[in-house]
Each structure stands twice: as structure tokens, then as C-alpha cells.
Write a structure and sequence with these properties.
It contains 4 helices and 15 strands. The strands form 3 sheets. Strands 1, 2, 3, 4, 5, 6, 7, 8, 9 and 10 form a 10-stranded antiparallel beta sheet that branches. A 3-stranded antiparallel beta sheet has the order 11-14-15, with no helix packed on it. It is α+β, with helices and mostly antiparallel strands.
Length: 233
């Protein structure tokens, strides 16, 4: 009997996602003076167009870290179940002590430390990190091969580059070594269509003539205005 192993893309639909900064990206190193230990994903529409979009767990595992940090903003760290770690290690031909994925710069977090999550379960939503950092909305994603502090940042030295290669996987290679599929329980919550004109949301009257956009991410409903701020009366 053959078994189909199904994982979930962190952002869906995946066809709308673009890479803004690659793993150990030379352009990132030149601009910021540090080696990039993961990848930065955005929507093809760019800018803050992905702000508030749901972020999903790539595989089943346990949330081993949740926290807010300067520059980083909200982070979630998920440790894969042992069978996932072993599968990835075999496919990527790497020794992996503990496979842990970092989802960083989140706007909000929908899970808590110690919680078990399944592939496709919402972890939170895409954000802009610490407001003081002034960054555009995007998801920073890392694949680590051992347990590290949630906000570990190696820096820009040659030794830091070696450390990244020793303690991280290239997320692009991780993504492409797995099998994906759509099941009803893995479908994205998607965008919530707001009624035209005036409508009521949680007791407040909202004016959609301002171009209100709603996105559902887990238990949260994220409202964003494309033009002016919505008005509540």
C-alpha cells in the first residue's frame, strides 16, 4: 500500500508568492551587512499587499517558541514531528538533530507555546515586524537543523556564513523536496468580501467606500484600508 504524504505551503495560493530575499542572498549581504539565514516571501503584487494574509504550518509539529522581539516583531517556532525530520533528512541527505521552522515578522499570532499543530493549521498572519524597523510586510522563514534561540541571528562574518550552512537548510530546497496537495481542511481561509457601502462589524458601522479589505487568519479577522481609514460611528 502506498501512502501519500501531504504538506501545506506556508502562504497560499503558492502561485501568487514571490521571493524577495533568498537564502544567503549576496544582495541582502551587500545591503544590510549580514548573511540571510532564511528566505523572505511576499506576494507578487509586492509592498504591503500581503499584510494580514494567513500563515500556515508547513508540517505537523509542536510550537516550541512564541515571542515578540525588537526588529523581528512576532515570531513562531515549530519543531517537526520525528517522522517529518527523518523524511526531510533522508531526502536532503543531511544530518538533522531537530527540524525547526521559524515564521517571523508576524502581525498576530494564533498559537501558543506547547501547542500541537497540523500541516495547514493557521499560525498567525503576515506582518511588518517591529514598527520601529520600518520594513514592508513579508514572511521571513527559516529551516533550522537543531534547536536555537528563536531570534538567533548569526551576523555578517565568514564564520557566521559557515554557521548558517551548518545549522540551516535552504528553505527553497526544503519546500521542493516535499509533496503537497489540497484537502478540504487545508484550504486557505481566504479573503472575506466586505459589503459595499455601510455595514456593521462587531457593533461598529464601517464605511466601505474607503476601500476596506478583510482577511481571515485563524481566529482573527484582519481589516485593512486601501485608501483612508474606515470610520466607525
Amino acid at each position: 500500500m502506498s501512502v501519500q504524504l501531504v504538506f501545506a505551503y506556508p502562504i497560499r495560493p503558492w502561485k501568487d508568492v514571490k521571493l524577495d530575499a533568498a537564502f544567503l542572498d549576496p544582495a541582502y549581504r551587500a545591503r544590510f551587512g549580514a548573511h540571510h539565514p532564511g528566505v523572505d516571501w511576499n506576494l507578487r503584487s509586492g509592498g504591503d499587499s500581503d499584510l494580514g494574509k494567513p500563515v500556515y504550518s508547513l508540517f505537523p509539529g509542536t510550537v516550541v517558541g512564541v515571542g515578540w522581539y525588537r526588529v523581528w516583531g512576532n515570531n513562531v517556532l515549530v519543531r517537526a514531528e520525528d517522522w517529518v525530520r527523518d523524511l526531510v533528512a533522508a531526502r536532503m541527505r543531511r544530518s538533522i538533530k531537530s527540524l525547526e521552522l521559524l515564521y517571523a515578522h508576524l502581525h498576530h499570532v494564533d498559537v501558543e507555546q506547547g501547542q500541537t499543530v497540523q500541516a495547514g493549521e493557521c499560525l498567525g498572519s503576515i506582518g511588518k515586524g517591529d514598527p520601529a524597523a520600518g520594513m514592508a510586510a513579508h514572511l521571513h522563514f527559516e529551516a533550522r537543523t537543531l534547536s536555537l534561540p528563536i531570534n538567533d541571528w548569526p551576523g555578517g562574518s565568514p564564520a557566521a556564513e559557515r554557521r548558517i550552512r551548518d545549522t540551516r537548510l535552504n528553505p527553497h530546497e526544503l519546500i521542493t523536496c516535499l509533496t503537497y496537495g489540497d484537502r478540504p481542511n487545508l484550504q486557505p481561509s481566504g479573503q472575506v468580501v466586505a459589503p459595499a457601502g455601510l455595514f456593521t462589524f462587531e457593533g461598529a458601522v464601517m464605511d466601505n467606500r474607503a476601500g476596506l479589505v478583510l482577511n481571515r487568519a485563524g481566529t482573527k479577522l484582519w481589516l485593512r484600508c486601501e485608501k483612508d481609514e474606515p470610520r466607525g460611528n
